[in-house]
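Morning run. Coffee first, then this:
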Amino acid sequence: MNINEYRKLISVSMGDQPATVWLKQVSYLNVYTGEVEQANIYLSDSRIAYVGPKELPISSNTQVVELERGHIIVPGYIEPHAHPCQMYNPFTWGEALLRDGTVLSINDNLTLLMLLGNDALQFIEKLEQESSHMFLWWCNIDRPDLVDQSTMEAWLQHNRVIQCGELTEWPKLFQGDEELIERLYLAKRHHRMRAEGHLPGVSYEKISAMAAAGIGADHESLHAEDVLKRLRAGLYVALRYSSIRPDLPDILKGMGHDSRFNLNRMMLTSDGPSPNLVEKTSSASMIKMCLEAGIPMAEAYRLATLNPAVYYGLEEDLGGIAPGRLACLNVLTSINEPVPLHVMQRGEWVVRNWRRVSEPDDTAISTWLRKVFPSRRTFVNLRLEQMEIQTDTGIELVNDVITKPYHFDLRSELETDENWMTLLDTNGEWMINTRIKGFATGVEALASTYNASNDTLLLGRSPSAMCEASRELQLHGEGILVYFVDGEKVYIPLPLSGAMSLERMESVGTRVDQLNQKMRAHGYRFTDPLYSLLFLTASHLPHIRVSEKGLYLVKTGETLFAATPLS
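And here it is:
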């Protein structure tokens, strides 16, 4: 807000200038008092100038809005912990959130740093111009291999960055890692940043130590007792309903009406859902779950409005309907139906009658994103002899994302639930071969550029088919290509650096549903195969992973078998 906008806001609030919008005698949820009230709401451009019983001056240019009987206005929703590159791209993510009434998300920057390096900041600035959704960001500080000191400083100083984290490498703090300690200290003390943890299954003692280090919130509670541990240590708790951790209903049931569960210290998050579950895990859907679980109405809405705004220090702009706040409003058909009929973003209607007022220019957005996220992959024309396995240690899936090592006889045939697995460096410099157990029984070959390290992952029952799938993926373009043993194929194109789709959320979600259905029919026994593919190369989840280091144990860092250089 510039000085002229500020002067106008004050003038409109005093009735000295006409409002730009008058919401006439509407019902609205006052999240500060917990009451549903009747009031006139006047706007001065992007902000609320007045909320109350008086009628202020208007002009012929003032937009007068009268709602139907029973309709009610609530604050725009806030997603406090987002991963905007989960096969969808950040622009598509913002569009999907906005249609469901989520006006702001606080987002992970790690994938952008991996794909764009120092150009990532330029991208988020352009995204802010192109998208009607509002994006804020967190800065990763515990991956010095991706975020050097100067890059971290540039992010921490940026006005769209309000948090550091999430600290997936938090055990390094207990190991006395000086670099991480200094980085966290810099973010907390010099930049006054919030810091978020990543603490699944962690004891109270370790949570307490992380709180002492400045961690202010965590989203990894698996049940009500986990929530209580975090509250006792002074942390905010983001209750999660996501693709592979749909814990919210069980947590709410476990909390019951126990007064120790201070709802003012809680938020709601979808934690980066798969594309087919974005609508099901939306802020509106989670609020509905809270209402159905018996959470008082005002408290349920605060979990997605006022509470995250207060936690992030945004309460003067967002989280409530009051003078001076941004006019980010959701019009509901009923207080019991959180999916909005209309959405106002910074004083402009962006959704009317459940439809976008102005659809994005898909061609222009696609051109821009293709330019920003080109393919940088070096495909390798694999020969069968290069896929020979020289280690007797493989990866066994315990669930969608947790693994454990297992041993096999190098001379033995594959068991029913085993597959060959190869990871190829995105730059074509190295590869590693092993086996994976528990993934599927009927996949002839799978080739995927969608994984945490953005390398090329191959797996399947047939090494020759895996080579063929790799060549076909090179021909058609990056993405996920699966040959099933019944002869069917599924292909999901991911033209944005092999990691993200250009399609709208509904379209890519339909593709994912088709893949999931086929995977389950062919022996995938967990919830979300995309998460399994994504995290096979991640460095922060137990117990065994594969990367440029080779096959290694996460907890100790021990390399069991090194990657093989490609000449």
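The chain has a mean pLDDT of 97. Good start to the day.
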